């Protein structure tokens, strides 16, 4: 990059500024990349190109040209939690891929897969025709907009899946809620959900709220 205005001391591992401002392109993508259409991050950064390819960067490989993940169909959307990623394929019957940390079953795999290094097909969702994917901090959500069924997995503590009747601490993928129109889960430990009746529901951690400490499952009427 050129014309960088440094906002901090160089980061020891990469010798690059810890913080910077620039309007110049990031020149670590191969020539076949036309545009980057989405970016998500946690312990690394994942880029989605207009060609439907995924690229991931991290501090240890800062200077290298990024290479697309291989053996994947075209991807249409991505999401990230604190330590995991999801990707949804752009196919007639979309498939869901997950990678990163699976310590809390947030990828839906059994606990023998604690750390998944590359995008891996989530087999249990192959027949569910998932339209949207969402990551919260330690959970994942998958919405079928045809049946309006919301699936989820991960950490159940503090009501993070919105199912108080679940007794296990961590769960693999299961059906959570019906009649769901949309879900908003922004890289945190709480989630908002709009049902087909137009009502907004919220669940998960609400430590900064003034009305209650933990938002187990509430409905907001307007």
UniProtKB/TrEMBL annotation:
Residues 1-23 are annotated as: Disordered. RCC repeats lie at residues 94-146. PROSITE patterns: RCC1_3 (PS50012). InterPro entries: Ran_GTPase-activating, RCC1/BLIP-II, Reg_chr_condens. Gene3D superfamilies: Regulator of chromosome condensation 1/beta-lactamase-inhibitor protein II. It comes from the Eukaryota. PANTHER family: REGULATOR OF CHROMOSOME CONDENSATION. This is Regulator of chromosome condensation.
């Amino acid at each position: 990059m050129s014309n960088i205005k440094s906002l901090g001391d160089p980061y020891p591992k990469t010798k690059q500024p810890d913080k910077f401002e620039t309007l110049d392109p990031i020149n670590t993508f191969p020539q076949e990349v036309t545009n980057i259409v989405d970016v998500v991050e946690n312990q690394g950064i994942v880029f989605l190109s207009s060609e439907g390819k995924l690229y991931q960067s991290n501090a240890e490989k800062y200077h290298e040209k990024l290479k697309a993940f291989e053996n994947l169909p075209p991807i249409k959307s991505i999401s990230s939690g604190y330590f995991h990623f999801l990707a949804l394929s752009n196919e007639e019957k979309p498939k869901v891929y997950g990678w990163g940390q699976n310590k809390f079953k947030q990828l839906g795999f059994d606990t023998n897969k604690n750390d998944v290094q590359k995008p891996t097909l989530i087999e249990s969702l192959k027949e569910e025709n998932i339209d949207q994917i969402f990551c919260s901090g330690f959970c994942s959500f998958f919405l079928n907009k045809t049946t309006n069924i919301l699936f989820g997995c991960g950490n159940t503590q503090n009501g993070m899946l919105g199912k108080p009747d679940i007794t296990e601490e961590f769960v693999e993928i299961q059906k959570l809620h019906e009649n769901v129109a949309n879900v908003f889960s922004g890289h945190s430990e709480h989630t908002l959900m709009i049902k087909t009746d137009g009502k907004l529901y919220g669940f998960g951690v609400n430590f900064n709220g003034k009305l209650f400490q933990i938002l187990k499952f509430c409905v907001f009427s307007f």
